Amino acid sequence: MQLGRDFVRALAQITKERGLSPEVIASSLEAALISAYKKYQGGNQDVEVHIDSENGDISICEVKHVVAEVTAPDTEISIEEAHSKGFVDVAEGDYIRIERNPENFGRIAAQTARQVIIQRLKDAERQIIFEEFSDRVGDLVTGVVFKSENDQVLIRLNDRTEAILPREERIVGETYIPGDRLKFYLLDVRQTTRGPRIVVSRTHPGLLRKLLELEVPEIQEGVIEIKNIVREAGARAKVAVQTLDMNVDPVGACVGNNGARIKSISKELCGEKVDVIIWSSDPLQYVRNSLSPAKIVKIEPILEQEKAVTVFARPDQLSLAIGKAGQNVRLAARLTGWKIDINALEPERMPTLHDIFQDIIDEGETK
Question: How many CA atoms, within 13 angstroms, populate the side-chain half-sphere of residue 238?
Fold first, then answer.
């Protein structure tokens, strides 16, 4: 039986263009033809198929066990019948291979070959996509929104690759319009029966980290180190940094001239405000820095609690320290890992004449 030389040439072209192994396709095709043959014959035969990749010839053999008495005709043959088929030297217990060429099976073989190759191409393409992106989990990727409906947002990463942007990974209030080009954090890549499932995020702290690395050369070069990042995506974020070169101001480098660098990042993140603060190995100083831009007057550890402090700010700085709906102090607590209680501290003042006379009166009344 022949699939033909056209099939052989087509197979060679496909394997070259798609990087598929001819052996992989041939073994898959052989397995498919075995299944197709059994279905065509309607039995449970022991079948071997061999494909000659040089000329497209297919040989199909049924393997039979030579027995004295046949109880399973699909897989067994009597000695007498084996002899009648020309296998004169066989004995009981031997196996013989009888070549088959059933009528009309050539059309089924060609159809099966086509289906196998199409499926193999799909499988190979899925594997290529999986291998390409599984090694990039945690990277920054750029994609184009191509579907945003019925609570489903899909992102096209390239001509053949789509990613999912789940609800919990979207910035609250951000709209995703088909055609919009955005940057994403590659969150997860998993192989499924329907191909790779790629998940991206707009809320992960890693997205802000990658944008800072992209925008700030000093971070790329290792002069400035990012110690921690916390976000309330789309609203506010805090980034703790330290410099490994005392001549480089880490906050100034991240913010840029006239705030150009941080404004560019904020724009990419739907207007998210980004506070850059200096990390400190002194936890109390770190907490003080984390409440920036508020100015803190005094900070005291709460001795009866682990990793807890009371912070005092002047009345005009209190709302800034707490932030809108408690956002500033909440992010500071997450950034440092410390529980922060903020109180107002009344400014000290010089005693007035009224205070002095009141003290004299009080002293007189006690005598």
Answer: 24
Asked if residue 266 and residue 291 are part of one domain, the reply reads no
* Domain co-membership, 16 together with 120: yes
Beta-carbon contacts of residue 317 (< 8 Å; ≥ 6 apart): 294, 295, 296
d(CA 133, CA 237): 28
Structural domains of the chain, count: 4
Most confident range, picked from 39-48, 159-168, 196-205: 196-205
Q: What CATH number does the domain containing 155 carry? A: 2.40.50.140
CA distances from 130 to 161, 193, 195, 246 (A): 10, 12, 8, 43
**Could you tell me the pLDDT band of residue 3, with boundaries at 50, 70 and 90?**
low
CATH number at residue 212: 3.30.300.20
Q: Give the SS3 label for residue 103.
A: coil
Q: Are 125 and 232 members of one domain?
A: no
Assign residue 269 a region: left if phi > 0, alpha if psi is -120 to 50, beta otherwise?
A: alpha
Q: Which of 264, 270, 211, 202 is nearest to 239 (CA)?
A: 211
pTM over 0.85: no
- Residue numbers of the domain that contains 122: 5-132
Q: In whole angstroms, give the CA distance from residue 89 to residue 82.
A: 9
181 contacts: CB under 8 Å, gap ≥ 6: 142, 143, 144
Range list of β-strands (E), the chain: 47-51, 58-67, 76-78, 95-100, 140-149, 152-158, 161-164, 181-192, 195-201, 224-232, 236-243, 273-278, 298-301, 308-313, 339-344
Q: How far is CA 361 from CA 350, 352, 353, 355, 356, in A?
A: 19, 14, 12, 10, 9
Going by C-alpha positions, the residue among 179, 107, 189 that lies closest to residue 146 is: 179
Cβ atoms within 10 Å of 232's Cβ, excluding its own: 18
Q: Note the pLDDT tens digit of each residue in 65-115.
A: 999 999 999 999 999 999 998 998 899 999 999 988 777 777 777 777 677
d(CA 67, CA 76): 7
Contact 231, 268 (CB under 8 A): no
| DSSP state letter for 276 | E
Closest CA to 1 of 46, 50, 39, 65: 50
